[in-house]
Design goal:
By secondary structure, the chain is mainly beta. It has one domain (about 1-135). The protein has one helix at about 100-115; strands spanning about 1-10, 15-25, 30-40, 50-60, 65-70, 80, 95, 120-125, 135-140, 145-150. Strands 1, 2, 3, 4, 5, 6, 7, 8, 9 and 10 form a ten-stranded mixed beta sheet that branches. A hairpin with a 4-residue loop joins strand 9 and strand 10. The longest helix has 16 residues, at about 100-115. The radius of gyration is 15 Å and the shape is globular.
């Protein structure tokens, strides 16, 4: 199974910024969080903080393969796509940097082709909460296989 965690920061006006991580198994049984992307959501139409199954499907609106969050209460068509302003979203999770967006979509597509279950957990941070920076390693993009890979050491090390 492929598991992602989206940590949402506190709202700033009508926008909510966040950080998307890919959970990777470590060498000693620990879970490493690989920083995959910076995100943005539109506060008035934001989806609940829950765990969602993800499938990469053809988007009728965008005309390309995009991750689709399934089982969103009372909603359909909630996707992960690129965007830089809250109004670019009607409930979708936006990835604000093109290279990060491409790496996440390619990684999820690769995982789906390997018949892996893909899940995303959305976590709403509270005042005083901190991102789990001590376990974070950046996502890198392997140009040969077109699959994002991780580096061997954490920047904190």
């Amino acid at each position: 199974m492929s598991y992602y965690k989206l940590y949402r920061h506190l709202p700033e006006g009508n926008k909510v910024r966040g950080v998307l991580y890919l959970c990777e198994p470590g060498r000693r049984g620990e879970t490493l969080l690989v920083k995959a992307a910076e995100t943005l959501e539109n506060l008035p139409v934001m989806i609940p903080a829950l765990v969602y199954p993800v499938a990469v499907t053809m988007s009728p609106r965008f005309g390309k393969l995009l991750p689709l969050l399934r089982n969103v209460p009372g909603r359909s068509g909630i996707r992960i796509h690129g965007g830089t302003k809250p109004e670019h979203s009607q409930g979708c999770v936006l990835i604000t940097r093109k290279a990060q967006y491409q790496a996440v979509v390619e990684r999820m597509l690769y995982e789906q082709k390997r018949n892996e279950d893909i899940r995303i957990e959305i976590i709403q941070m509270r005042p005083g909460d901190h991102l789990p920076e001590n376990q974070v390693i950046p996502l890198q993009y392997n140009d040969y296989e077109k699959v994002p890979t991780k580096i061997t050491q954490s920047p904190a090390a």
